[in-house]
Design a protein that fits this description.
The protein is an all-alpha fold. The chain is built from six helices and no strands. 81% of the residues lie in helices and 0% in strands. α1 runs antiparallel to α2, α4 packs antiparallel against α5 and α5 runs antiparallel to α6. The longest helix is centred in the middle third of the chain and has 31 residues. It comes from Virgibacillus phasianinus. This is Tripartite tricarboxylate transporter TctB family protein. It holds the Pfam family TctB.
Length: 149
């Protein structure tokens, strides 16, 4: 039952995003305001998105009263790891084209492993980053024939 309570607002958020993307792709009007046909569907999708977010947090709050595991998720080291992972992911996407898959993956995985495992396990972090990147590159480029940048 809890999964349904969380799933419904997530479903509304996904529907609002799909509606927003569909509304943006609508053809522009030839007469009058060219963006006139877009205002109403975009407004509805934005409202649906906002209501979905509010509904999601209300359900989280309601579930949180009976279950402290969600509270534990947002305390301690976890929020910092989530934020650093997002920042590293954005950095990975920015350097991917210029440095290529192999070097960008080594840097991204190495940085991520140093954040997660700490500097004490530096040998393991470097070996895992190098091995995973080379194995992934070899599997895609040589075995599967997919060209990587």
């Amino acid at each position: 039952m809890k999964a349904f309570k969380i799933g419904m607002p997530v479903f509304l958020i996904i529907v609002s995003i799909v509606c927003f993307i569909g509304a943006i792709r609508l053809p522009k009007a030839n007469l009058g305001d060219p963006y006139g046909p877009l205002y109403f569907p975009i407004g509805i999708s934005v409202l649906l998105f906002i209501f979905g977010i509010v509904y999601f947090f209300q359900e989280i709050k309601r579930i949180n009263k009976s279950n402290n595991k969600i509270t534990e998720l947002f305390t301690g080291r976890t929020p910092k790891l989530i934020g650093v992972t997002i920042i590293l992911g954005i950095g990975y996407t920015l350097i991917f084209e210029s440095l290529g898959f192999l070097i960008a993956s080594i840097l991204f995985l190495g940085a991520l492993l140093f954040v997660v495992n700490g500097i004490k396990n530096w040998k393991t972090n470097i070996i895992v980053a190098l091995a995973f990147s080379f194995i992934s590159w070899y599997a895609f480029s040589e075995l599967l024939g997919v060209s990587l940048p």
